Protein: Na+/H+ antiporter
Organism: Pseudoduganella ginsengisoli
Amino acid sequence: MDAIETVLAMLLAVVASAYLVRLLPVGVPLPLVQIGLGFLIAALSTHGIALDPEFFFLLFLPPLLFLDGWRIPKTGLLRDKAVILELAFGLVIFTVIGAGLLIHLLIPAMPLAVAFALAAIVSPTDPIAVSAIASRTPIPKRLMHILEGESLLNDASGLVCFRFAVLAAVTGKFSLTSATLTFVWLVVGGISMGVTVTAAITWTQRWLTRHFGEPPGSPILVNLLMPFGAYLAAEHVHASGILAAVAAGVAMSYVELSGHAHAATRIQRSAVWDTVQFSLNGVMFVLLGEQLPHILKGAKASLEDVGHVNSWWLVLYAFAISLGLMALRFIWVWATLRLTLYKKSRAGEAAERPHWRLLLATSLAGVRGAITLAGVMTLPLVLDNGQEFPARDLTIFLASAVILISLAVASIGLPRLLNGMDFPEEPHEQQEEDRAREVAANAAIAAIERAQIDLMSTSLEPDVYPQAASRVIALYKHRLVEYAEHDEGRRYRKMDNAEKELRMAALAAERKAIYNLARHGHISDEISRKLVREVDLSEARFR
């Protein structure tokens, strides 16, 4: 019962954090608030939560990675693929080697394999934490797309490196040939299993729906189980479950383009996944705060084992590793940028040199978060020979400290660094949106004209369809004028904004009137819910 109460307290802390972050006068990242609340729970609770590393990994990582793969902007990913791949793979290897050697140099008593494991698990960045900072700091969209794409891929590359380092620490053996072959199978097998599981589940679900209909809620539950299925299937064949979850999410984004899902299912599914993402990320950081006292205690014991009695050495190690990570990231970003500019100048292409503050912001935006926390919690408790895993608590503490420091530095540094900078709008995005709306409106008009003829031939009252069709077509023609690229089109845009404000006021009045009728018993609750849902859907369209 006490464990259940602690879990409920954590979920309430996640809810409370969303309100606290809005009440604070300064821009504090949401994860930091959640960590603080978790620490408060630990201070008030009489017992802690014992974590099973494998269970922790399975519960948190697959859905988060799946959702990252599903929602990553594919256009930005393909446009900046060279930069993203450099950051997601090259920077990870550079960080593992550089930071691993730095950590071993700082803490000689920590085995080299464990130092590389720590370096590998702090190499992935977290776009959720950056987004929390970006909500109060203007970050260019293109830079955000690059950071999101990097985090999608470096989650997998960093965790695969982490797996190799932990395996070397546990067994005491490492073969480059074996590691290379294993890495190839992990990548190929993981991606293949992710795509295969998504395709198989999608085909089966469509077949069942076509023959037996679609039970309410079933598609959403299947979608929630999909990342776990991909992860477990890949792990069963000793491939990378991490890459399988990412690949399943990317495959799902293409499945979505088929448009087979019902509109109501898409709306409900989006809300469910938003809740899952918010809850899992929040619980992970609250859990970090709850574990901090125990982690700190274990880290002090590990520190005594390496010959340091003063606890300030923990702070020194944490800041030294964090500064080292920032320096490595800056060096890599600067070097790859110089190389890119050199290649473009050799090819005779015009190359615009980014502002130095934007370059530094890219380095500071390498915030660590959920993936680092989830991964480091999976460190095994014992080695193959039965001995305790060396410096396990110290490793977890240092990874947790890197998360805290990177969040704090980004939340303080990014707003000051980017303050006052003007970022040009990306006009092609508005042009793409207008073009898509124009094509959709023309398709809708053509479909209305065809449907009018078909319905008139089968209806007992065919005279009602011409007038109804003209009303609907007029709405779409208004949209076509609105998207036109001339002064009249811009005037229609202003009118459209004014119309949205008036519609929002009208919808609010509709909803209030419906609730008032239900409260006085003039309509049933069922009718009230149906009408309010229609109003809510209309309102969602204008937000």
